[in-house]
Amino acid sequence: MKDTETSETLIESMGQAARAAAVALSVAPADQRARALQAAADAVDAERAGILAANARDMALGREKGLSAAMLDRLLLDDARIDGIVAGLRAVAAQPDPLGAVIAAWDMPSGLHIERVRTPLGVIGVIYESRPNVTADAGALCLKSGNAVILRGGSESFHSSGAIHACMVEGLRAAGLPEAAIQLVPTRDRAAVAAMLRAVAHIDVIVPRGGKGLVGLVQAEARVPVFAHLEGICHIYADGAADLDKARRVVLNAKTRRTGICGAAECLLIDRAFFARHGAVLIEDLLAAGVEVRAEGELARIPGTVPAGPDDFGQEFLDKIIAARLVDGVDGAIAHIRRYGSNHTESILTEDDAAAARFFAHIDSAILMRNASTQFADGGEFGMGAEIGIATGKLHARGPVGAEQLTSFKYLVTGDGTVRP
C-alpha cells in the first residue's frame, strides 16, 4: 500500500477491479478457469522453496510474538502441506463446473418453460487468520465458482500468503484471466478489515475464517452480508453402546491429530453406562497423549486430570486441552450440546441405531457424525477439493463451503410469444 493511500481508498480501488474481474469470470468458459487452477498448482509446486522460505520468516516472527504451539502449527508449511495445497488446487480444477448447472426445470400450463440455474455471487471478501493455505483454498473455490475474491490474510501469515498468492496470479495470467480476480490485501493494517466490512458497493459477501474474536468483530461491524462461521466447539459423545476399540481410536484422533483446527474435539461427553463398563480408559488415553483433561465430577478424581472450571465447557481451546464430563445417556449429551455447542460438528460413538438416530434428529449442528472423528469436518474430506470455511448459520450455505455453495441462482424463462391473460 502506498504511503498516501488510506485503507478506504485501497479497498475502494481493489473492489472496483474485483467487480470488473467478476463480470469477466461470470462468462469465462469452464475450461479456462480450470486451466488457471492447474497453472496455479504448477506454480505452487515449482515455487515451493520460495514459499517455504517465506513461511520460515512468518514462523520466526510468530515465535518472537509468543504464539502458542497450536497457532504455530496452523501457520506452519512443510513439503507435505504444500503437496496438499497442490492437490487441492488440482482437485478443485477437476470438479464439475457449477456455473450454468440446472438446479430445477419445469413447464407451466401457460406454456412457459422455467429453469433455475447456478450463477456466481459476484465479489467475495475472505478475512482469515494464521492458516496460509486458505489463500489457495479460497482463491481456488472462488475462481471455480466464477467469483472474484479479495483476500485479507492474518498478519502472522503475511509472507506465506503473499508467496502463495503470487502463484495464484501466475495461474490467472497463464489462462488469460484478469489478475484482479484473486487479490490479496497488501497491508497488515487492521483498518483494511474495517474498510472491507463497509464496502457494500464492491463486496457481495464476507467470509470470516478464524477465531471467536475475528468472527465476532465481523458479525458486529459488517454492513456486507456475512456467512456465519462461529468457533468450532466440537463435541464427541461416547454412548453406552459404543464399541471400545472404535471409541479409543476416534476420541484420540478427534483431539490430537491437529489441535488447532476448527474440527478438533473440544469436549468429551461420556455416558455413565460407558464409564461403568469401561472405566477411565478414554481419559487415560488422552492423558498419555499429553492432553490436559479438564474434568468434572467423578472424572475429576482420575489421576492426572485438572478440575474443570465454569468456563471450560463451551470453550474452543485450539490446543492440547479438552473438557470432559459424564452425562446420562444420549439425552444428557443432547442437552449439553444444545447448551454449550456452536453448531459446528458433533460426533456420537455408538452401535445403537436408535441412539444415533435420536442424536442426529435432536441436534441442529451443521455436521453430525457417527463413529467418526470430528477432524473429518473439512471440505476436502467431503469431496469438495477444498473449503472456504465451515458455515454454522442456516442461511444460504451450511457446513463446508465449497464452490457450489459460493453460487446463487437465477431463473431462465422461455416462452413462444406467450402473454399473460
Protein described:
The model has no long low-confidence stretch (mean pLDDT 93). Helix content is 42%, strand content 19%. Strands 10-9-11-8-7-12-13 form a seven-stranded parallel beta sheet, sandwiched between helices. A four-stranded parallel beta sheet has the order 5-4-3-6, sandwiched between helices. The chain is built from 14 helices and 16 strands. Helix 6 runs parallel beside helix 7. It has 421 residues and is of the alpha/beta class.
What is the number of beta strands? 16
Q: Tell me about the biggest sheet?
A: 7 strands, parallel
Helix content: 40-55%
Series of secondary-structure elements, N-terminal to C-terminal = HHHHHEEEHEHEHEHEHEHHEEEHEHEEEE
* Computed structural class: alpha/beta
Q: Assess the beta-strand content as a share of residues.
A: 15-25%
Strand order across the largest sheet: 10-9-11-8-7-12-13
Task: Give a quick rundown of the structure.
The chain has 421 residues and is an alpha/beta fold.
How is the secondary structure organized here?
Layout: H1 7-27, H2 30-46, H3 48-65, H4 69-75, H5 79-94, E1 102-107, E2 113-120, E3 123-128, H6 133-144, E4 148-152, H7 158-175, E5 182-184, H8 191-198, E6 205-209, H9 212-221, E7 234-238, H10 244-256, E8 265-271, H11 272-278, H12 281-288, E9 292-295, E10 306-307, E11 321-327, H13 329-340, E12 345-349, H14 353-362, E13 367-370, E14 390-391, E15 399-400, E16 407-414
Parallel strand pairs: 3-4, 3-6, 4-5, 7-8, 7-12, 8-11, 9-10, 9-11, 12-13
Antiparallel strand pairs: 1-2, 2-16, 14-15
